[in-house]
Design a protein that fits this description.
mainly alpha
Length: 166
């Protein structure tokens, strides 16, 4: 049971960290870079990014963090090794925020951007961009902060769990 708990907590920490890095990278590099471009470049780039990100690597990390953190919490609870459990639970709760924001805000915005059509066929790209950009950036910032906090909590849970094993 200890090995499974350790592996799930480690996997949850790594995948939460990878997601935190992805969302933070968008917050401090990708979106500010795209902001500097014209409307056509912005819309075309975001539509392609939104398509490209739906791959096995992303889905493994995005869903893997949720599954691994939940498993780690359950295993710590049922195994009676609760030294890191409060931080594992906090990491899971924060990651649920990431999941909810992605599902309720960012994905619908991505779908609306895609539904607007190919950039060369859209009459008012500035309006399409305006309906997308500020809301997407704001919600991405929320999930970047939540993912980073989740990663920090998971890392501390791993430290506490490791101390409890010795």
């Amino acid at each position: 049971m200890r090995t499974l708990t350790t592996l799930s907590l480690l996997a949850g920490t790594v995948t939460a960290g990878l997601m935190a890095g992805l969302f933070a990278g968008f917050a401090y590099a990708v979106m500010p870079g795209l902001r500097r471009g014209d409307d056509r470049t912005f819309v075309a780039a975001m539509r392609q990014i939104n398509r490209a990100i739906l791959n096995g690597w992303f889905m493994s990390c995005f869903l893997g963090a949720l599954v691994a953190l939940a498993a780690a919490a359950v295993l710590q609870w049922t195994g009676g090794e609760r030294a890191g459990l409060p931080f594992t639970a906090a990491a899971l709760a924060l990651y649920l925020v990431v999941f909810a924001v992605t599902a309720a805000a960012n994905v619908p915005l991505n779908e609306r951007l895609d539904a607007a059509g190919e950039p060369d066929a859209v009459g008012d790209l500035a309006a399409v961009r305006e309906r997308f950009e500020s809301a997407w950036v704001a919600w991405n910032t929320v999930r970047a902060v939540a993912a980073t906090a989740s990663f920090g909590c998971a890392a501390w849970a791993l430290v506490l769990y490791g101390r409890g094993m010795s």
